[in-house]
Amino acid sequence: MTRFPDLPDATVLADPEALEPYRRDESHVQGDLPLAVVWPKGPAALKELVRLAKAEGFGLVPRGAGTGKAGGCVPMGEHAVVVDFSAWRGELLLSPQDLCLSAPASAPLREVKATAAAGGLFYPPDPNSWESCALGGTLATNAGGPNACKYGMTRHWVLSVDAVLEDGEVHTFGIHSVKANAGPALGQLLIGSEGIFGFIVGATLRLTPLPREHATLLLPAKRWEDLLDLPGRLCGAGYLPSAFEFFDPAVLAELRAHGPDEARRLPGEALAILEFDDRGCTFGPFLEGLMDLLGPMAESLEIASDARQRAGIWAVRRMTSAFLKERHPKKVSEDIVVPRSRLREFFAGLERLAIPSVTYGHLGDGNLHVNLLGAGEADPAELDQQLMDLFRLALSLGGTLSGEHGIGLSKREAFLSLSDPGQIRALRALKQALDPHGIFNPGKVL
Ligand code: 2HG
Ligand code: ZN
């Protein structure tokens, strides 16, 4: 192919200089220069693109807003075309009676959440990029976020998905109801697949009534290790926080020394942010019981008394990733998970391994962002070894190597070598069956 052809109902960009930004997302990996970037606006363009890809032997790499953390949307090899879904047509359609919202992959997640909220409804997935990411990317990667602690991941909030498969047609998997049991849930196979079986172009999302109350607490611990048992203790006592975030002493010290004003005021040696959204959570027996439980371990306890204070607390948590990245541009940030009952063992293991790292993240569901700040200066072989040790530690405790960012390019080798061989065989068989020409996001995950 000498020149990338024009396509019906699509914009095409093939100028090599303009293609440069499409080699990256927000992870530390860099892909290859794509042949072109295509913005399909509807199914006709996608159908033609799939036909061309099969005929000409190039791969298609899906891209939402490029905010992924694992390199899932960066091209690999010389024959890849980026399919940017930001121009995909479609409207947001709220159906309060069915407690659902239909939206195209191009919809900004911010708008999805706002549209639901305007109707008094809640769409819980809240990855850190929620103000800039696209719905399609969150579906392809099964995004998480702080609210996963209580509400689960993106896949728990999808009733149906529309996806283009290898025949070039868009198919719908699922119906507008939580009860749908006619055969296996194939749509679930596409969610979190990072586009290796086909591309999601839209979805109908499940909603729930919008919580009206929030108790947001800052909990600096007298001894930071005590925080590690707290997620399990809270659940044991019948409390399920809608978010339970955490900064270890090193991250907190860095935030306090170099962060914005709100961060400089943060108390304690290590800090948890807890949020509850149960009805009646801001007063009476709920709060009293909670105080009894938290009081003995807390150096102090601050409850956000209004929306502004709550927003201030979250602003610090939300900027932590970008803040650390700015201070340590070559850092590598990981995303392991262990069951919440094994957090103490995980931190003991991390100390034994002596991996130079700092940690923050979603303590309440055991999803921790272990950051190797000095990764840029480290010997690459040693760094690889450290990451493998970290993953093995998580796995040995019944956890996994990614909680919410996915495999993409960055964790592909580790995923292949550490997963159950039966799982990899099954995934390869599915890939072969659903994408026999290997056009959908080649080189990712598998
Ligand atoms: C977060 O929880 C995001 O802030 C980003 O998942 C994590 O950059 C990171 O390590
Ligand atoms: Zn996170």
Beta percentage is 15-25%
The CATH first-level class of the largest domain comes to Alpha Beta
Radius of gyration: 22 Å
- Largest sheet features: 8 strands, antiparallel
**Average pLDDT metric:** 96
Please tell me the CATH architecture of the largest domain by its name: 2-Layer Sandwich
Poorly predicted ranges (pLDDT <50, ≥5 residues)?
none
> How much helix is in the residues?
25-40%
The total tally of domains equals 3
What is the straight-line distance between the termini?
Answer: 27 Å
Bound ligand species: (2R)-2-hydroxypentanedioic acid, zinc ion
Oligomer: single chain
Number of discrete helical segments: 15
CATH topology of the largest domain: the name is Alpha-Beta Plaits
Overall 3D form: globular
Structural class computed from helices and strand pairing? alpha+beta
